[in-house]
């Protein structure tokens, strides 16, 4: 490994998940099983991928941990918050994502992971009844203070040198950005202290608390949370990395691949209809129109930035794009994403593409959660702060400041990710994107 400014990954790293539902319990169980040699970290770039460094005779393909200092899974300590008191074993069993044989070997370890009481506001997740919550009458500022104390206590009790906080809980109702509240840290803090519940969501309490405690924060849902100027300012001020938003798992991952292929081949698109059926807790929450609106905004923006209708008006200026999510309990975590894409080619002749992706949502999300947590820690040790656009590879609606547009093309995102890792490892960033 070359000499770099990245601090070594020494000591224990705490990964605190907001939410101990299907995604988090699958992630936690998987990490514990993999540590015992009873599973494989399939889908995780930090654990499996190799990246080229150097050119010509100096070219070599190395794992991430050979390029930059990374913690081993043995050095990871796992914890969570939730609004339901089930421990990680109970949550894993109820989620019905993993088979019993992939849970019971780590049953004792899972039972010891009990969630801290969560920040709960029924107006933000109307389909859920929180029974394990912090005082719902407390102000947003007081709740944030309590979350900070949770982080401090977790670090002390588990001997953690560093902590990363990842939101893996439900999608909140949509909150439009309000410049009078969200555009400066001063007005944002004033709103928290005034208990402005219409503009300050529960997820914002976790994000602010994490940043204040020097812990990188990753937003794994499409919530309006850290994609506001107040959070950007606060993260820069505290020298803390943040990234979001919304884990890019099934249908959107396919969109970032297919849309890039259409643009590369200069094939036109007339319409893109997407629908999902999902039966887990996420599906239940998204069955409420106000919560679905948040997810819809995240999903709709993906293909526009890839296809670039302004640059190619003959091909992409008038696309009809529709997204639907339907709650269907019999499927549990086995989500089905179905796409109908109307494209056209030579001389404008129409064609259709049908995609039916029968995926396991939490199985796809778990390795993303791991990678984002480990890369968030890497960014902190590398002295990076604020929005980490190089992590857009993992996210449906990549965060960016007001002066830039997100990159959604999966292959361009991967190039950006690899270049960031190369640079932190002391190598040249030798790939470019158009």
From TrEMBL:
- The transmembrane residues are 13-34
InterPro entries, A to Z: Myo-inos-1-P_Synthase, Myo-inos-1-P_Synthase_GAPDH, NAD(P)-bd_dom_sf
Q: Does the keyword Transmembrane helix apply?
A: yes
Residue ranges of every copy of the Myo-inositol-1-phosphate synthase GAPDH-like domain listed in the record? 250-362
Superkingdom as given in the UniProt entry? Bacteria
The question of whether Membrane is a record keyword is answered with yes
Give the family, as the similarity comment puts it: Belongs to the myo-inositol 1-phosphate synthase family.
Q: What protein does this entry describe?
A: Inositol-3-phosphate synthase
